[in-house]
Structure formats: structure tokens, C-alpha cells
Amino acid sequence: MLSLKLAYKNLIGAGLRTWLNVIVLSFSFVIIIWNKGLLNGWNEQAKRDMIDWQIGGGQYWQKDYDPYDMFTINESHSVIPDGISDDIQNGLLTPILINTATIYPEGRMQNVLLKGILPEQKILKLPTDKLQKNSDEISILIGSRMAESNKLQVGDYFTIRWRDANGTFDAADAKVVDIFHTNVPIVDQGKIWLSLEQLQKMLQAPNEATMLITENNSVEKEEISGWVFRGHDYLLKEMDNLIKMKSVGGSIFYGILLALALLAIFDTQILSIFRRQKEIGTEIALGMTRWQVVRLFTVEGAMYSVFAAILAAIYGIPLLTWQAKVGLAMPEGTDDYGLPIAKSIFPSYSIGLVIGTVLTIFIATVIVSYLPAKKISKMNPTDAIKGKIQ
Amino acid sequence: MQNSQIISIKNMKKQFPMGKGKFTALKNIDLTFDRGEFTGIVGPSGSGKTTLLNVIGSLDSPTEGKVITLGESIGALSHKKAANLRNKHIGFIFQTYNLLPVYTVYENVEFPLLLLKMPASKRKKAVLDSLEWLGLTDKIKSRPGQLSGGECQRVAVARAMVKIPEVVLADEPTANLDAENSHNILKMMVKLNKELKTTFIFATHDEKVIQYLRRQVVLKDGKVVNIKN
Ligand SMILES: Nc1ncnc2c1ncn2[C@@H]1O[C@H](COP(=O)(O)OP(=O)(O)OP(=O)(O)O)[C@@H](O)[C@H]1O
Ligand SMILES: [Mg+2]
User: pLDDT tens digits, chain A, 390 residues: what are they?
Assistant: First the structure.
């Protein structure tokens, strides 16, 4: 209790020096929480986008399907099992058929993946209702990245060339009926979306599919023979790893920040050995024990972080809440990170994050205050009283 | 009753390390002090007055010999016990005031009582009383930086006296005071000494102090050369 009281008096009495330290430390509170919150928000948003646009509640893969093997992709489809047609009707599942192809927009050439999807599906956010069913013309959807890199606009035609299930080359013209915007690059880059029926016809693979995407909230994942279920854990693993790498980068950043703040406190405490030794010697002469001196200095250090936490709360809470509401606009071109990234990221702060940060900083300040304090207390009081630098 | 002797020093020597060798600041000191003394250690600058007070007050330990203050053997005390001895029984007045710069006058005087864990109401009365004795009532909220040298000196005296210790060790307590203030403080110390049997040991070469002393221990080059009663 005494050390609390004295530490409080010492800090208040020291005035500006105290407030400078407190301000620096409060910055690290706010920036660390903001930075981590931003990563959390990004993480959550990226997962949500992946689920909305690409993976749904998990996917059944035709047993041979391997997304990384372009040579087997065209053989990895089979007939959609009879038993699940109700589920498809009810929107619990939607089949996708995938095949490689080459397109020739304006005389150039690009390898793409054709993806057949039911126009009436609601599981993925793709505007598939724009696809015309049963028309002679092939109508296709592309994403904005794809449109930009191939200079395609709605209403444009280009040639698609593909091999059907028998290995025979075929070609036809396709018309861009819509261009969609998505945060998820893999739905967009190098993908051509068209009606499932259309693609089945083109490949001469009636009623076949490469994967079945489940609706996100459907809980039961029954086994379907000949098909392998891939859940979120599997499908988001790569993204999780990417995000983990990003948070390591983030940790380094806020580690440096925290180190700077702690250095300020450490510095103050070390300086105190010299500047305040007369004071400390006097306190010892007046009957303070070494342990009381150590405790006083340690409590002073800890008190910095308490003050800083209070100050950080005063300006940080409104600032961070506002930021979580309006989001942080990401610069153009951040797509290249390889992660789905929105135009704006909305930071997401958890109680654990806040408490964890406060505790970490608190413990760290206690440690950097304790170390110099221990040194101080070993000073010879008669030298200290004279204020002799040793 | 024979416990009137509260400090005894036998064949004490104090050396400080200096470069490769040692500097002998005090040697062959044999002294005793009785309860209720009003004694000065006098001598020229550098004769060892402050060093002697520091050893008596357990801030420093003797290199050789025995020093017993209030029943405690100074060289053998743990840090904790020494702190306890100073806290409970010894009031220091330093040559350089040594006020705590961030505390107000009131807080400076209150400090020893906080260490003693004296209850708040008793503490307040004691602080206000001692500030009144020393004519500092209107400076209660000032910080040391805002005080004159003499005022600082008076705060230092108030801080030493506030807990009414058994022994007050005063190192040049009047060095920065004018004649009037010096006499006021000394008269007050004499009064405390008479009424409460507080023992006063001064280190001084100030004539104003010397005329109040009942005994003088004269130091020269670290040795006691004379004792005047
Ligand atoms: N920590 C120390 N290390 C080395 N020498 C010291 C130390 N403290 C004191 N001395 C020396 O011991 C001698 C006595 O010092 P002390 O401070 O006791 O003198 P003093 O009588 O109080 O003098 P003054 O009247 O100037 O205050 C001096 O020569 C001083 O240089
Ligand atoms: Mg001296």
C-alpha cells in the first residue's frame, strides 16, 4: 500500500516526464490492439469471402479430383449420384463441373478453367442467375480481374476451344453476360463460369460434375460413395497458413513497437539510478529497506502501464470502435497478396486480445522496472545521499 | 539505572578505498554518548565529522572496532535491521538537506511517519505540529525547489524531529540559516532535549551551535583530540 501511494506521488510529482512515457506506452497499447484487430478482421473477412464465393460449407470432390494437377482435371468428373438430386433441388448442394480450355480474346490466347454451375444456385455468391439456360449461344460470367486482363466487357464475344470427354477438340464463341466483383482472386483469375448444362453438353458428359458444394449452414455431411468430403479445415488450411505468416510479420512489428515503449521506460528507470540516487539514499537513510525501494520502483514502472492503459482507453476505445465501423480502406492492388482482401478491412477486437495485450505490456513494464531497481537498492546509502555518481 | 549509555564506540577505525590504497577517515575512536546528551562533534572540514555520524547512524559500517547504537552492533546489522533502527529511533539532518524533490513540504515531513505506518490522524497532527514549531505552516504545499536554503533546512529539521526519535544526528543543521533562525531552531532542539530526553549529536563548526552544546568532541584528521565538557 505504501509503495502504491509513494509511487503515485512520485509519478505525479515528476510531471512531464511521466506523461511522455505514459503517452508513448499508450500508443503501443492502441497500435498493437489495432494492428492485431486488423489482422483478425482480415482473417475473418477472408474466410467469410472464401466461404461465400468458393467453398461453401465444404465440398465433395470426385475421388480423382486434384486441383493442383491440370493433367487429370479433365478426367475427374463422374455422374452426379441419384440419391442427392433432392438436396440439389433444395439448395443444400450444388454441383460444379470443371474442365480446361483455351480462350482467344481479340486474337490473344489464354489457358483457363471452365466452370459449369447451376444458374439457379444460391450457395455461392456468383451472379449465376445471369447465365441463360438452354440457349444456343454460350453465355459466360467472368470476374473483374479476368475482364481487365483480357480487356473484355459485357456483350463481348470470344472463342473458346476445348476437348470433349472423348478427347476431340471443339470450339465455339461465347458471350460475356456479366462481370462480377469479388474479393476472392481464385474465383476470378483464369476462370470462366457458364451454365452446368451447357458445359456438360460441350464436354459430352451429361449429368456429370467434378465437385458438389454444400450449403454453409447444412450440418450433416453424409458419405457419398465415389466422392470425398473436404471440410473447412482442409479447404482453408492454405489460407490459414498465409494468415499465420502475416501475423508473424505483425508480431515482429508490434514487438518492435513494444520494445521501443519499454526502452523508454527502461531508460527512465536507468536514468533514475543517477538522477534520483540522492533521493533514494535519503529514503534509505530515513529507514526504507532495500526491498521497499525495489518495490517502489517496480510499482512505479507498473503504474506507467496502468496510466497508459487508462489513457489508451480514453482515446483508443472511440478510435478503434470508429475504425471497426468504417473499416480501413486497402490500397488498390493489394490483391497480389494472394489472400482474399476486401476494399476495406474491418478490424475485429476480442476481449482476449485486449486483455492479452494489457497483461503483456504490464508484465513487461514490471520487468524492465524491476531490473534497474534492484541495482539501485544495492547502492551505498552514504554515497547515494551525497548524490555521487558511481 | 545504568542504561543511560545509548551509544558506545570502541577503538573504531573507518577506511575508505582510494585508488589502490585506503584512506583512513577515522581511527582510534573511543567514545560513549548518554541518553539526553546535547553534544557536538567539532573540527575542521575533512576531519571526519560526517563519517562519524554516518557510522553511528548505521548508514555506514566501521572498518574495525565496535560501534553499538541503541543496543545494536552496527557492523553486524543486516540491511533490514539497520533500516528498522533508523526508521524507528534515529532522525537524520543532512548537510545537504536531502529533501525529496517531488514531494511537498508536508509530504516530506510525513515520509518517516508513513514508513512507521503511523495511523493517518495521528500522523497529520504530528506533521502539522512539527511544521508549526519550525514556522513552515504557510509553506505546506510548496515543493523543495520553491524554498530558500534556510527553509529547506527547516524542513529537514522538521522531518528529523517529527517522529520524536531517541537520537537526532544533525550534520551542520544551521549551515544555511541566518542568526535568528539558527537560534530559533537550536532553542527548539534544546526544549525537545529537555522535555523528551531526545539525544542530539551535531557535526558542526558553527559558533552559533557550539555555544549551545553541553559537550564537544573535537576531531582532527580522524582522531579525537579533545573532549570539552
Ligand atoms: N566515500 C568516501 N570515499 C573516500 N573518502 C571519503 C569518503 N567519504 C569521506 N571521505 C573522506 O573522509 C574524510 C572525512 O570526510 P567527512 O565528510 O567525514 O568530513 P567532515 O568532517 O564532515 O567535513 P565537512 O566539515 O567538510 O563536512 C575526508 O577527507 C573525505 O574526503
Ligand atoms: Mg561533513
Answer: 788 888 888 888 878 888 888 888 888 888 888 888 888 888 888 888 889 999 988 999 999 999 888 888 888 999 998 888 888 888 889 999 999 999 998 878 999 999 999 999 999 999 999 887 666 789 999 999 999 989 999 999 999 999 988 888 999 999 999 999 988 888 998 999 999 999 999 999 999 999 999 988 776 777 888 899 998 888 888 888 877 777 777 778 777 877 877 787 777 777 766 677 888 888 889 999 888 888 888 898 888 889 999 999 999 889 888 888 877 777 665 555 556 666 677 888 888 888 888 888 888 888 888 888 887 777 778 877 776 654
**Residues of chain B found within 8 Å of residue A17, distances taken between Cβ atoms:** none
A282 CA to middle of ligand 1, Å? 18
- The ligand whose atoms approach the alpha carbon of B41 most closely is 1
14-33 of A, contacting B, C-beta below 8 A: 14
d(CA A57, CA A93): 9
Size of interface A-B (CB pairs under 8 A): 75
Q: pTM of the predicted model, to two decimals?
A: 0.72
Contact A46, A339 (CB under 8 A): yes
d(CA A353, CA A25): 17
Where do the structural domains in chain A lie, given as residue ranges? 2-51+238-386, 58-230
For residue B219, which atom of ligand 1 is closest to its CA? 21
Asked if A207 and A200 touch (Cβ cutoff 8 Å), the reply is yes
- Residue B200: give its domain's CATH number: 3.40.50.300
Q: How far is A15 from chain B (nearest CA, A)?
A: 9
Give the distance from residue A260's alpha carbon to the nearest chain B alpha carbon, in angstroms: 27
pLDDT tens per residue, range B46-73? 999 999 999 999 999 999 999 999 999 9
B104 lies in some domain: yes
Beta bridge partners of A45: none
Query: H or E stretch including B210?
Result: helix B207-210
Distance CA A18, CA A24 (A): 10
Classify residue B212: in a domain, yes or no.
Answer: yes
Residues 6 or more apart in contact with residue A246 via CB below 8 angstroms: A39, A42, A339
Domain limits for position B134: 36-58+79-228
User: Do residues A56 and A214 make contact, with C-beta atoms less than 8 angstroms apart?
Assistant: yes
Q: Look at strands A227-230 and A59-62 and give their pairing.
A: antiparallel
- Distance separating alpha carbons of residues B140 and B104, to the nearest angstrom: 7
In this structure, are strands A110-117 and A138-143 parallel, antiparallel, or unpaired?
Answer: unpaired
- DSSP code of residue A348: -
DSSP A215: P
pLDDT per residue as tens digits for the range A231-240: 888 888 888 8
The total domain count for chain B is: 1
Q: Do B115 and A288 count as a contact with CB atoms less than 8 A apart?
A: yes
- The interface pTM score, or ipTM, of the predicted complex is 0.89
